[in-house]
Design brief:
The chain is 46% helix and 17% strand. The longest helix has 17 residues. The chain binds alpha-D-ribofuranose.
Amino acid sequence: MAVSLHDIAKAAKVDVSTVSRALSNAYGIRRATREKVLAIANRVGYRPNRLAQGLATGRSRTLGLVISDIRNPFFAELARGAEDAAFAAGYDLVLCNSDLDPAKQTQYVHSLQEKRVAGILMNTVAGMTRGLQQELAKWDVPVVLFNRPPTGSNFSTVTADNFRGGFVAGNYLIRLGHRSIALLCGRPQHGNLTERAKGFMKAVHPARKGVVAVVLRGPHTYQGGHEAAKKILESHRKVTAIFAANDAMAFGVIHAIHQKGLSVPEDLSVLGFDNVELSEIIRPPLTTIHQPKYEMGQAAVEILLKLGKQRDTHMPENRVFGIKLVERQSCRAL
Ligand code: RIB
């Protein structure tokens, strides 16, 4: 049978409110009393009733994490940082894959609201109706967006410097002597990928440097990269380098090149973005732009919990993380 606060109070010879305050580490409890209560709670295997606690506070100690797809290793690393930060603060994390489907995204947000979560981390609100976005922004539970450029709205954001990342990528390929470069930049509604494309175009601006940039849009997934590379190999034979605006696409590109019997970087250079763990392991190891995924996940939770405490006074916070080029073996000088 479940042990209750009453059982512990009886054993410790104190009242129930003293037990409750001792267990929640509240002020005003003598050290000896707290230690006695904790020792009894441990001995009898007491587990707090989260449902009852939630009813009392109106919130559960749970955070929602809504991402597009955990199969993209970028999200796995970010989720790990978020979970570690949530765990350290005494919160659980519920994972929701939205597939960037507006209906699914909306349903998850409603379901998290109904679960009375203490906050939601989301990669985007772009697919949701304006009405729901406004409702979320005014909601009494904080929402932090990560992986999207600052929205200028009421939401706090955590992101990497995507524009700079694209710029560094473009400059790097130019420095290696590439003059016909393909850019795989995802679909236009993805602000972070679009920023990378803008930075890249600034670096390789055709009028200034005589560079031909072939731009391909499509899903920013392994399959998306694979399909795009097949098109390049068939119809853009002068291309000598491909900048894939995330590592998942870059992996698809490398696979398509190998399937054609060609080599990376001897026949085509490939540059990624993210620096997920796999990028070091694949062959050839991928040259890529690093963004601090784990730290971004941690930061998103920290901001969320801070906002939760200062809901009435907070100003949205926009935290931008630096990027860096990680040179491995998938790009070569011409
Ligand atoms: O939306 C997913 C992509 O955005 C990831 O691959 C990563 O690049 C992120 O910033």
